[in-house]
Amino acid sequence: LREILVSLVTHLHAFVRDVRLSEEEFRAAAKLIAELGQQTNESHNEDVLIAGSLGVSSLVCLLNNGDDGNTETNASLLGPFWRLNSPRTANGGSIVRSGTPGPALFMNATVLDRSGKPVAGAEVDVWHSSPVGLYENQDPEQAEMNLRGKFTTGEDGRFWFRSVLPAGYPIPTTGVVGRLLEAQNRHPFRPAHVHALIFKPGFKTLIS
C-alpha cells in the first residue's frame, strides 16, 4: 500500500505541476469525477469506459498477460456485453437464433497451449454484434442469446461455427467519455470483432 500510494502521489503531483492546474480546472475535474460515478449503473460503467478511452485498461491487460502480451494471443478486455450462461452449441452449429440478415461468417479456430500443443476440452464462450452493430441485449428485434454460443474444443483443440458478419459500432457517447472524444476530435467507433472467452482448469482464462 505504501509503495503504491507513494508512486501515486508522486506522479499525481508531478501532473498538477506540469499542467499548472488552476483552481477552476481542479473544480471542473472534481465535478467530472463525480459525474463518472453518477453515470455508472448495473448496465453501464462510465469509469471503465473512460479507462478504455485513455488506454489504461489495455495497458493493464498487456502488463498482466505473457511477456507484456507478446508471447501468446493478446489478451483483450471482457467488454460490457458478455452474458453468463450462453447456450451450449455443437461444433459446426450456428449461433444465429433469430432472423439476422447479413453476409455469412464461418469461424474455424484452434486453441493451443504455450508449447503449441492442442488444448482439448476447453470451454469457448463466443459473442458478437449483429450486422447493424447491436448486441442481442441491446436490440429488442433479436431473439434471446442471438449471436452467442458456448463451444468445447475437440481432441485437436478445434472449435468451429457459423454466424453472420458483425459490424463495427460506436461506444456510448452520452456521458463524460463522449464529451472527451468530441474535445479530442476522435470518433467513437470500434472495428467489427468477435469475442471469445476461453476457459479450462489449469490454464489462465483468455479473453480475446
Describe the structure.
The protein has 208 residues and is an alpha+beta fold. The protein has helices spanning 2-19, 23-38, 46-53, 56-63, 176-184, and strands at residues 104-110, 123-128, 148-152, 158-164, 169-170, 189-190, 194-199, 206-207. The chain is globular. The chain is built from 5 helices and 8 strands. 15% of the residues are buried. The chain is 28% helix and 18% strand. Strand 7 (194-199) and strand 8 form a beta hairpin.
**Could you give the distance between the termini?**
31 Å
Kindly estimate the percentage of residues that lie in beta strands according to DSSP.
Answer: 15-25%
**Coarse morphology:** globular
Number of strands: 8
Q: How would you spell out the order of helices and strands?
A: HHHHEEEEEHEEE
